[in-house]
Amino acid sequence: MDGFTISWIGALVGLAIAIILILRKLNPVYALFLGAILGALIGGANLEQTINVLVSGTQSVMGTVIRVLAAGVLAGVMMESGAAETIAQAIVKKFGGGKAILALALATMIITAVGVFIPVAVLIVAPIALSVGNKMGISKIALLLALSGGGKAGNIISPNPNTIAAARGFNLELSDVMIAGFIPALCGLIVTVIVASLLKKKGTMVSDAEAVNSEVDTTKYPPLKTAIVAPLVAVILLMINPIGSIIGIEALSNFKVDAMFILPIAGVIGMLAMGQGNKILEYTTSGIQKMTATVLILIGAGGIAGLISASDLSIQVVSLIEASGISGTFLAPISGILMAAATASTSTGVILATGSFGQAILDMGTAPLAAAVMVHTGATVIDSLPQGNYFHVTANSMNMSIKQRMSLIPYEAIVGGTMTIVATLIYGFFL
Q1: Distance between CA atoms of 291 and 113, rounded to whole angstroms?
Q2: pLDDT in tens, 238-280
Q3: In terms of Cα–Cα distance, which of 186, 114, 116, 180 is closest to 149?
Q4: Residue 414 to residue 397: CA distance in whole angstroms
Q5: Distance in angstroms (rounded) separating the CA atoms of residues 116 and 231
Q6: 7 in Cβ contact with 279 (< 8 Å)
Q7: Rounded to the nearest 5 degrees, what angle is found at the Cα of 201, between the Cα atoms of 200 and 203?
Q8: In 3D, which of 346, 408, 348, 326 has the Cα closest to residue 31?
């Protein structure tokens, strides 16, 4: 940009245009690009400078993109083989009906934590939830809160696109961000179970017809002992380096293999363990297809992140925080909350927050790991708004109307807010 700075007004207008277009059902990628272009032009850039903004912004997310594509191998194996369903069924069966809400929340948390996208994790566990809810007299709003809250908790400790984006945004190892999110995630799980338990008699109940239609044939799924191989291998390989650093074993701490290699390797090993090595083309094709939409949105988010980064918006926000007298530490969670709310997406929100406010957050004295965790958890607070696909996918999974699904958003915000508060206290003030 040759020292040229776009006006913060242009950045805000561009972001607003993108949000409005997404709400008007324009493809999110085009909406984000168009918002970035118009915002740059309104902010004072010429056509050449506008292209440079887009190019530099999209280039900044390429590291995240290739890791997300690599993660598609593990995701494809877990979803297409039935391994995720096996794990979910085993958890719910282990806990029994008396602890149904805990079992459902924990099942979704674990399924998401091992690399399955949160909307897909909800879809996987939803049939089980409908069946259990019908038998135990638990309302749909309580069931979906258990699934969504558990998924949010698992999402901040997973090798999913959002965690990859948080790690790459602050040049950190994926495993470090996953480990740092564990305590906030655990608190999120606890709050999910408590709030969902209070709501179990509120709202619409699961009908007998819905319960019958949700019955799943489990005979086609792999046994649990082989279903857990892929996520177990991924976790072990990702944790070698941080564990070695903690216990002081140099050989382990020097084991620095990127998630781009670990996640596909784990997927292939898991596939072989389940005796499904002949389906490698099928599973990897499915995995990359499921990642394609996410990758495109990440590229679109990179474009608008380039706009915000080239503007003086972060300077204005920092000045506002300093003038208000509140701690600069709050910039990290606030940026995550606002950007995820704007795009109704955790991963896109993290991309925008790290790309637009990352340097400003670090300049205020926040450590990279602390910044990553606070931005990441902040992005889970109000990321399930109607302009995003998660809202509609989860509503359909439980046969809920738009109005019924809207009523769940404040309770989801309680879960995400709890994780954000815990992360901010631990990493922003105590450590």
Answers
A1: 17
A2: 889 888 887 888 888 888 888 889 999 999 999 999 999 999 9
A3: 186
A4: 22
A5: 10
A6: no
A7: 100
A8: 348
